[in-house]
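Hi,

I'm pasting everything inline rather than attaching a file, because the server keeps stripping attachments. The sequence lines come first, and each chain or strand is labelled.
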Amino acid sequence: MAHEILSATNAVVTLDVALPGIVWPWLVTVNMWAKSIGTGVIFMLFVLLRMYPEQAGKLRLPASIAAFVFINIFLLFTLADLHQPFRMWHIFVYSNWTSAIAIGSVMASTFLGLLTLLGYLAWKKDGETFDKVLLWTTILAIPVTLYTASLMAQCTARELWQMPAESAQMILAALLAGSAFMLLLGGNKLGDEAKNLLGIILGLSALMAFIIYMSEYIFGPMKAEEIAATIGYVKNNGPYAVMFWVGQWMTYILPMMLVVLSRVGKSESILKLAAILALVGLAVVKHVWLMIPQLLPMS
Amino acid sequence: MQLGFLVDLHLCMGCKGCEIACKVENEVPLSTWRLRVKYVDVGTFPETKRTFTPLRCNHCENAPCERICPVSALHYLENGIVNIDKERCIGCAGCVMACPYGAIYIDPQTQTADKCTYCAHRVASSMMPACVVACPVQANIFGDLEDPTSNISKYIQKNQGSVQVRKPEKGTNPHHFYVGGGNITLNPLASRRENGHNLFNNITTLPVGGHH
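And the predicted assembly:
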């Protein structure tokens, strides 16, 4: 690997231009975080309506509004991140269908349309039609939450972002954020069984996501020198080491422990604390994973 | 026709004439570069050597920037050049993130992506790219890779054993070759980047597009 050559050659850049800094800033972090919540809420609403239709029926309107708001936040921050936001319409007119951005934009716009329809149907209290539309919305939520993974995978320059791991992380982030948000949104509308189910989804998705992160942290550097260099930013004294571990503890380790504790102690407050930690921590985790590949010099 | 570039690093002396010619020809704004020459020093005093590597867009056959661009602002010309339509670009910076060679930048004046186009406007008028004309030692060799009688094809034939591309593992099939290159010149991870490697200041990174 390059670092071994480096120690032998003592090669140092003595004259070069300043390289570009962070290309995709925190706006993209918020984009991913909000999308996880927006799609995750729909996943959870679908599951709850199938398993606990009586209780979950009361959540049709608030869940639709929540998903609508977070998908709008996602779209707003996507727009804000563009250097030419007033040309956004080009995506729909000059679409390049090999691009995950183009495909994702069309899917996300359709998703927003369905969410608007869901909100309207919930407000009209048309539960039957709502449930039919929700099925299609849930199906569409899967590629909507996954497309960011394919976008990251299309970033050939960023070796860290591999499609298999990122797609699993995107789905798990949606399940984690959706269950956490529903636990907070459900309040006294949901019974203990429904809350237990959401707690289990929260705990298991946290466990799975944590396993994937740790696998990449430990085994990733053994595969490619670029991954080794990128992971170096979160290891030892790397600039993102503290933030990485704060994120892992807040989003995964503590919520997992709190979910178990809440089941043992039958405490709803502990479950809500786990949900809040997971939601806040998810933004930290996403941010670190977005930033570190951008610190690597490409040329 | 498939246009390509070859740089003979044995010949390059780091005069940066190509860099300046490119800046002037394409009116590249301050703080951004389509082509630059990187100096890397190797060894420990007194056993040291300085290497010079001109770096520009590789005009890949399988270009990640073209693939990720949502509006086809980045597109192939018939002669193989990966060109950019700045009027169409929305500034999503997907191409900047996708390019494994760090060859694309956000123009701070137009807030759109930009990069080396092999001076497509000059090529269309049967002229050589500005950097080729400026090079005093003919280290930049430009021409049709599909024409076996072109200078570049002959050069590649003559130096078959030492022709390399940057990051071949990425599968991009670059149309930009180097003769006399090595890990230190072609792999950015094989050299340290320390503060103060600029000639006139200590700035190592600049904000993309001038803001954000």
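The CA atoms of residues 97 and 186 of chain A lie 39 Å apart.

If the labels don't parse on your end, tell me and I'll reformat.
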